[in-house]
Amino acid sequence: MAVADMLVSLFIMPFSIKFLYHGQKWLSGGLGSLTCKFVNFSGHVSIAASIIALVAISLDRYFAILHPFKHLPLIRNTKLVTTLIWLASSVFMIPYLVLYNSTRGIDDRWRCHLDWNYISKNGQVQLEFAQAYFLVTIFCLFIIPLCIIATIYTLIGFRLWSRQIPGQTNEDARRKAEKSKKKVLRMLTIVVTAFTLCWFPVHLMHFLTYFYIQKYLNIIKQYPHLEASMYFLGHTNSAINPCLYVLLNERFKREFLNIVCFCSSGKKYFQSTTDSFTFDHRVKETETRGSRL
Fold it and tell me: Which of 31, 39, 133, 280 has its CA 20 to 30 A from that of 47?
């Protein structure tokens, strides 16, 4: 997911900024066609991979919390899951690789855009294909992932909230457990909300573009920067993902701070910090085991 989010920054964001200032203008000839296909295909594959990775992470959390001892070789095999995520994303975005092209317009300027003539010369056939493809996109990259993530995190939330601390507990232990539950539930809620708020406007825009084009054009005329803002909001999800992990996940935050210390103070300090953490962790683990015994 980190690689996918970085690729969004590398390919999609510069392309979006260029679109704001220069529209669809592009390089000419074979180089223009090749770069047009590569940039758009790579960018959209990374978006799909980031979304599918969020679903994979939610599934991993589900089985880790609700079925920790269940034998699941597919879910536990990180390399295989990662490979499947990128393969599925690439296959799903093949139409972008085929359809995007740099073509010369009537004003002799070259533009990078979706060339539906690869599908058919008939405008009605082009429209029907576009409608079908973007309906599939909305379901596969928004509605279905959102339903899976929301359902899984709801089940995890119920399990965590209803779980009781075994044995006799004092008020301080109960207070800490309640605080921990609230933090996890807050994190799950924020992840689902961020995904919904970031991607819903983009898919709504696509839906209006291919099913209510005249109404959409009227809205764009009235609010010229609305389209760019919707795209920007969707791409923001790739920037939000690492921030959410740093802010809401204690282990991720700790490792992130270790890397920052390593970059700022050098490897020696990083090693001493890691050794200190390892020692503290072992002490705590020993004390925990002793208390359980």
Answer: 31
Residue 274 lies in a domain: no
CA within 13 Å, CB half, 136: 9
pLDDT band, very low/low/confident/very high, at 282 (cuts 50, 70, 90): very low
Q: Which candidate, 183, 202, 199, places its Cα nearest to that of 238? A: 199
**What are the tens digits of pLDDT across the range 187-217?**
778 888 888 888 888 888 888 888 888 888 8
How many Cβ atoms are within 10 Å of 50's Cβ, its own excluded? 24
Residue 236 lies in a domain: yes
Tokens of 141: 């990259």
pTM of structure: 0.76
Q: Which of 153, 149, 134, 34 is nearest to 93 (CA)?
A: 134
Number of domains in the chain: 1
The token duo for 114 is: 């979706």
